[in-house]
Design a protein that fits this description.
Largest sheet: 9 strands, mixed
CATH architecture of the largest domain: 2-Layer Sandwich
Shape: extended
Organism: Rhabditophanes sp. KR3021
Radius of gyration: 38 Å
CATH class of the largest domain: Alpha Beta
Number of domains: 3
Protein name: Ribonucleases P/MRP protein subunit POP1
Strand content: 15-25%
């Protein structure tokens, strides 16, 4: 046996580098650790990897250790917490007692408002209304208990209230009133529509509606309507313009203001953007700080959306309900003076101010409002910054009246503007004073009864209308495609409706321009000048004439109209407005749509053939006789089971074949429909009557007792309606019946319902 000798030249190092030594032996250490750590006495497979609980002897294991680390031995709890943190299973929800604590409820509310903001009355509405996420807010849409008929009854006999605090408010401050009017003039159509220099509103006694456009772009690039009020700020004694706008156009309006005044955000030292604790959140909620922007021309803009809330009351007893909801502080009782009046008896857009106590005597809740309210000072409404009494806030009312011909509308009422700190208490008091609550759905119906268009759904030329129409198209298409294909409305093959869920105003106007050989334009606009609308209305009634070049000059314009059904039919949204081509259409009043695509069955021949077969005498000569096998009549059990299995396989195969055939038929039908739609004109050839406009809002009108609707008609198409003035046809998208209706061109203000 050969013995290896020790190498005398090799020197054993006295110091070892630990890191390098362990890196070379990582695999060896891992095997040793697994062998030692996994081996437990009594285990069947000691070489398998173990969890922290499985490393314990069997007599020490407990089921509760899997979710409660404190059940482990003390020397293993640290390793157990590390293992439990790596698990992916759902954590146990805290108890309901813990979740219902006020602090934890507040934390949950904050987390749920990350995507959509809540109004002050959100919790009250969420228990009673279907909430809808729209325009960045969660808004009460429809009541679970009351339908629109009950809301309309309350609006005509009692009072209804709706929270419209989603309206955004801007405060524009400048050195003088004329300075602001001069620099804000590019946003308006001065000399043609209402401007900021409207004389009855200069003293702050009225809140008027104004139509805003992009700077120097009238009549194109319509932003939307707004409500404005002139006021004086008591602390700084500066002139202020309060501008209430719809949340959907707030970004567009702010972009226009930024382009005019080069607005720069002013950071507040006292404002905390994010609360560090719940105490900070409560403090910031009770004293909100508005966002401030500084611009050129000595003009500043402040976003007061988080400071002011707005409620809308409709009905003849709206003032009475409001007077019973508050207690006035001063001896000069403004609310008590007008409490017994109806909103229809008040001047239109009149502003009333008062200091009121919104907290009941039995409930002491400190409010500390940021905005004290409005008072008369030097002939102008004055805005206070703070109030001495913590339970007293200053509110202002705006009377709202849509019909000026002495008729009363269900939409008539008042708007109440109150600081946010007192809005929740005022909302509670209105409920206790028997104010009936309506949602956004019912408010739109009341706006319809008040002969007003709903913004932005019913305005086709706004900068935001394209976005809103796309959202509506996606929503309606999703609902339509949920139904099976053979249960859907075949809009094109049966009703010849090319666009059932959109209006396509640009295409409609462009085709009429092409048919009348007018110059083509890329943008459309709505005629809102009262002089032009009055001239068109007189021409439509046969009381005047139009200039020769009028139709070509306004060929890209739309005019607002109202149609009333003569006998039957309820016009709905997206319905077609068609021209009358003969006297027979007027005499019929209603007739069905006939298209070459429809092929009705000839039922007379089929019925006569059946009757002739029944009448024939029954005899043996009428039947064919053939032999039948007894084995087929009396099959064995095995043959029966075999035939049943064969029939089952055959049925499955036929089912797959039928499904594939239906899919092929569906694809071919959709392909043919697309080709047919591309080959026809939207205005002239898509159906058997010329389309001159569309209906944007229509239904049964309770105030008129008949079908009523509002829509728009292309000016270029009026030349085809000269034979039968005042009369048009309308047809809903899901019907084949045409109905004769009376058309009226609207000349009054149509966006006062904002």
């Amino acid at each position: 046996m050969e013995i290896k000798k020790y190498n005398e030249d090799f020197v054993v190092p006295r110091v070892i580098e630990t890191t390098a030594f362990l890196k070379e032996r990582v695999d060896l250490l891992k095997d040793i650790y697994d062998a030692i750590g996994s081996k437990v006495a009594g285990d069947v497979k000691p070489n398998m990897p173990r969890t922290i609980m499985q490393r314990l002897p069997r007599h020490m294991r407990r089921r509760a250790m899997s979710h409660n680390v404190k059940r482990l031995p003390r020397n293993m709890r640290g390793f157990g917490m590390m293992s439990l943190a790596k698990t992916k299973h759902r954590k146990k929800a805290p108890s309901r007692f813990w979740r219902r604590r006020p602090r934890n409820l507040l934390k949950n509310y904050i987390q749920r408002q990350r995507l959509f903001r809540w109004l002050e009355s959100h919790v009250w509405h969420a228990k009673r209304f279907a909430m809808k996420a729209v325009w960045g807010y969660k808004i009460a849409f429809k009541s679970f208990q009351k339908s629109y008929r009950a809301i309309y009854r309350s609006a005509t006999t009692h009072s209804t209230v709706c929270d419209i605090s989603y309206m955004r408010c801007l405060q524009i401050t400048g050195p003088s009133q004329q300075h602001l009017i001069q620099h804000l003039a590019p946003l308006t159509a001065k000399g043609k529509l209402t401007s900021f220099g409207y004389k009855p509103a200069l003293d702050g006694g009225q809140e008027e509606t104004i139509l805003l456009y992009k700077p120097e772009s009238y009549p194109l690039n319509f932003i939307g309507p707004a409500r404005y009020l002139w006021a004086l700020e008591e602390k700084t004694n500066k002139i202020c313009l309060y501008l209430w706008v719809h949340p959907s156009i707030f970004g567009k309006l702010f972009e226009s203001l930024t382009s005019l005044f080069d607005l720069i955000y002013v950071e507040s030292e006292t404002k905390e953007t994010k609360p560090l604790s719940f105490e900070d959140f409560d403090r910031l909620s009770n004293s909100p700080q508005p966002n401030q922007f500084k611009g050129t021309q000595n003009i500043n803009v402040t976003d007061m959306s988080d400071v002011l809330d707005r409620f809308r009351l409709c009905g003849p007893r709206a003032l009475n309900v409001l007077s019973r909801s508050v207690v006035e502080r001063s001896s000069h009782s403004t609310f008590q003076t007008i409490a017994n009046l109806t909103p229809g008896n008040l001047p239109k857009n009149k502003v009333y101010c008062s200091d009121v106590k919104v907290a009941l005597n039995s409930i002491k809740i400190p409010l500390n409002p940021l905005l004290g309210g409005l008072k008369d000072s030097q002939g102008m409404v004055c805005m206070k910054v703070a109030s001495d009494d913590k339970e007293v806030v200053s509110v202002y009312l705006v009377s709202r009246k849509t019909k000026c011909d002495g008729q009363r509308s269900a939409f008539d009422g008042v708007d109440v503007v109150v600081p946010r700190q007192g809005s929740r208490l005022l909302w509670r008091n209105i409920q206790m004073a028997s104010g009936h609550v309506s949602g956004l759905h019912s408010l739109n119906h009341l706006t319809f009864e008040g002969r007003q268009f709903v913004f932005p759904d019913d305005v086709p030329d706004s900068l935001i209308s394209g976005v809103e129409s796309k959202k509506e198209l996606i929503e309606l298409t999703a609902q339509y495609e949920k139904r099976p294909w053979n249960r859907r409305k075949q809009f094109w093959s049966k009703f010849s409706i090319k666009y059932p869920f959109t209006f396509e105003w640009e295409r409609l106007v462009g085709e009429w321009q092409h048919l009348n050989k007018h110059p083509l334009t890329n943008q459309i606009f709505v005629v809102r000048e009262r002089a032009i609308l009055s001239m068109l209305s007189n021409w439509w009634k046969g009381k005047g004439t139009l200039a020769d070049d009028f139709l070509s000059t306004y060929s890209s314009a739309l005019i607002p109209i109202a149609i009333t059904s003569q006998c039957r039919g309820l016009p709905k949204r997206f319905a077609l407005i068609c021209s009358i081509e003969s006297e027979e259409d007027v005499k019929k009043g209603m007739f069905s749509f006939k298209s070459h695509q429809l092929q009705p069955l000839d039922t007379k021949e089929s019925i006569s053939s059946v009757r002739s077969g029944i009448d024939n005498e029954i005899s043996e000569g009428n039947y064919d006789w053939f032999p039948v096998s007894l084995s087929e009549m009396f099959p064995s059990e095995s043959a029966f089971k075999l035939s049943k299995a064969v029939a089952l396989r055959k049925g499955k195969k036929e089912k797959r074949t039928r499904h594939a055939a239906r899919q092929d038929k569906r694809r071919s039908t959709e392909r043919i429909e697309r080709q047919q739609k591309d080959n026809v004109m939207y205005a002239k050839s898509s159906c058997d009557r010329s389309i001159i406009g569309r209906i944007v809002r229509g239904d049964y009108s309770f105030s008129q007792g008949i079908g009523h609707a509002y829509g728009y008609v292309s000016v270029a198409s009026l030349s085809s309606c000269h034979l039968h003035k005042k009369k048009v046809l309308f047809r809903n998208t899901n019907s084949s019946n045409y109905f004769v209706a009376t058309m009226e061109i609207l000349t009054s203000s149509l966006l006062d319902g904002l």
